[in-house]
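<amino_acid_chain>
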Amino acid sequence: MTIITRMALAACLAGLAACTMPDEPAENNAPPAAEAQPDIMTWDDLFARPKPETDIRIPYGDGDLQFSELWLPEGDGLHPVVLMIHGGCWQTDIAERDIMNWIAGDLRDRGIAVWNIEYRGVDRDGGGYPGTYEDVAAAAQSLIDHRRQYNIAEWNTVVIGHSAGGHLALWLAASQPQFRVALSPHSLNIRTVISQGGLPDLEAGTQREGHPCGTEAPRLMMGGRPNLTSPQRMRAPGVRQILVNADRDRIAPPEYAEAYRNANLARDVTDIELVVIPGEGHVELVTPGTASWERQVALIEAALGRVPPES
């Protein structure tokens, strides 16, 4: 399978490439038109770049989609680690873990290990509720199980997820005990979770007619149990939450993150931050060299204690 099934992506993310409309001719005596904004990135812009690769694949189950890929920096010392979760509207036909390869490679080049997980989408047998959640929990447990083999400093893990993966990242940080896979006496010590244009409210997703992800995928992910599956309704995760959104994102506009942050603030959860990047869209969030990604790198470095956090 290619990195993304292009026809499925076009159907899912319809309208992304057409966000910027051509200027209309100005009427006589009309005020000057506002300066046109530059086009935001499309997936083809990202896919045209050389794609980094890793050769370390670690299964956490027997299924074809039950594995993680480890991006391991050079050197023998303990490696700080980011657990990464891809998006794609919770559907395997739309995206798989290699849509994150570019930012995973960038973090590896900066000396940060990346545990980039794959999971079953709602369009695969066993996906949705509860299978997708069980996959994510098992992949996180697998990181713990292999920490010594790969010299991973798992005691300060940053979890990061894009789009639907942002929902899963927030879910993992707040997940209920019955979803945890008890294969080890150790548990993943998540200190910071970063949602990259995430979709944290499954209930709202089931009502968004015309949204590129549709309403069926969030319904299947919710499983009729929003208190266990939708971060908007779950108990607060007890870790630092950072919501990074681009202001021209048509898939996950900043108001989705704003609603989630307000829900947290209403229950006295204050360790939550909303970062809005001007002039960029959904793809820039997972593209090295963009303002969106450079801001996230700074947040990751600070969370891992590699640079002083901003005051």
The chain has a mean pLDDT of 87. The chain has one domain: 58-303. Strands lie at 56-59, 67-71, 79-85, 113-117, 152-162, 190-196, 240-246, 272-277. DSSP finds ten helices and eight strands in the chain.
